[in-house]
Design a protein that fits this description.
Elements (H helix, E strand, L loop, with lengths): L10 E5 L3 E5 L5 H7 L17 E6 L2 E3 L9 H5 L2 E3 L3 E3 L3 E4 L11 E14 L2 E7 L11 E5 L8 E4 L8 E7 L5 H8 L6 E8 L10 E7 L3 H13 L6 E7 L8 H10 L4 E7 L11 E2 L12 E8 L1 H13 L7 E5 L11
Parallel strand pairs: 1-7, 14-15, 14-18, 15-16, 16-17, 18-19
Antiparallel strand pairs: 1-2, 3-5, 3-7, 4-6, 8-9, 8-13, 9-12, 10-11, 10-13
Helix pairs in contact: 4-5
């Protein structure tokens, strides 16, 4: 009779390339990792941002909420789970992108803001100077925190390739976003911040043929970093870059894009697409959604896109309808979830 009430036993979690440790009953992978001092990437801790996703290599977990609502179909097919929503049902081995693979070693540095530039009405560029040089793969992100914001760190993508001891981020204000509100309205040069990273698996892969880059809002940051790094390395693949924005006033980094276009070794097409530009304005470019343009494109071998999940989901569906393999589609999703988000 009493066997029905046996207490749950702890299990062993192995993080490839990091180590192994005991996870207590009812403890999530993320909580256990943080308790052990592992710099496991996370933002929201409630299953809303996918920052803590990891690949289940071996064992069984209990998912507290369905990861299908936030992870891509590709991630699900590759057995990715959310660390903050997964409890161990057995000994488990996971792989954490950027933490386990050794492509970039995460570190924590205390720095200060040395430049704040207004990009649009609701987005700023923030440059941080660190005490030491930092290395990352263009397309990756860091956890950004400051004593002025008590609710924890936020995940922001690097907006440039590595530049010595300086890092740059694009921070767009979102409704209710404590960090993004601070960055857009209260932050000043000299403010202290902490940068923990790099993390993430969004970066340029080897390949040939034309590349399609798609960005929406502040999702332009990692795409811009990838393109600038590829330009510096004389990558000669043709590129089509679709930038989705609401109005012409929401377009940003146009000088950077123009410079990359002028110095690109292959063909470079930049197509901004505005969804809410007022009728009768002087805008002569494309209107509508980026998905309106995708069917016109041919011979795309790889696609890299970053932005709100609804835009990326629609673009991915459009790409697949055009015959593109999901193996050639790489996404970096963020949401406007007043952080539960990758940018709030």
């Amino acid at each position: 009779m009493f066997g029905l009430f046996k207490s749950a036993k702890p299990h062993t979690l192995t993080i490839e390339g990091v180590g192994e440790f005991t996870v207590n009953p009812k403890e999530t992978i993320l909580t256990a990792a943080l308790r052990q001092g592992v710099r496991f990437p996370y933002s929201c801790k409630v299953g809303g941002c996918a920052t803590c996703k990891c690949k289940l290599q071996d064992g069984q977990v209990k998912e507290l909420t369905s990861s299908a609502f936030i992870l891509s179909s590709e991630d699900l097919d590759n057995k990715y789970i959310l660390g903050c929503q997964s409890q161990l049902k057995s000994d488990v081995t996971v792989f954490v992108d950027g933490l386990s693979d050794g492509t970039s070693v995460a570190s924590v540095q205390e720095g200060e803001i040395t430049s704040i530039e207004k990009l649009t009405a609701d987005m700023v560029s923030v440059t941080v100077t660190l005490p030491e040089e930092t290395t990352y793969v263009p397309g990756q992100y860091a956890l950004f925190s400051t004593p002025a914001v008590s609710s924890g760190s936020r995940s922001y993508s690097f907006a440039t390739p590595p530049q010595g001891n300086q890092v740059r981020f694009f921070i767009r204000e979102v409704p209710g976003g404590e960090m993004s509100g601070w960055a857009n309205h209260q932050a000043v040069v000299g403010d202290k911040v902490t940068i923990d990273g790099p993390y993430g698996d969004f970066y340029l892969r080897q390949g040939s043929g034309e590349m399609l880059m798609i960005a929406g809002g502040s999702g332009i940051a990692p795409v811009l970093a990838i393109l600038e790094d590829a330009m510096n390395h004389k990558i000669d693949r043709d590129v089509t870059f679709l930038f989705g924005a609401r109005t012409e006033k929401d377009l940003c980094a146009l000088e950077d894009i123009s410079r990359i276009s002028r110095n690109w070794s292959g063909r470079f097409r930049f197509i901004p697409v505005l969804s809410e530009e007022p009728e009768g304005s002087s805008w002569e470019g494309r209107r509508g959604l980026v998905t309106d343009v995708i069917p016109e494109l041919t011979d795309i071998s790889q696609t890299y896109m970053c932005g709100p999940p609804p835009m990326l989901d629609a673009a991915e569906k459009c790409l697949r309808n055009s015959g593109m393999s999901e193996n050639g589609i790489y996404c970096d999703r963020f949401t406007d979830r007043s952080h539960t988000q990758k940018a709030g």
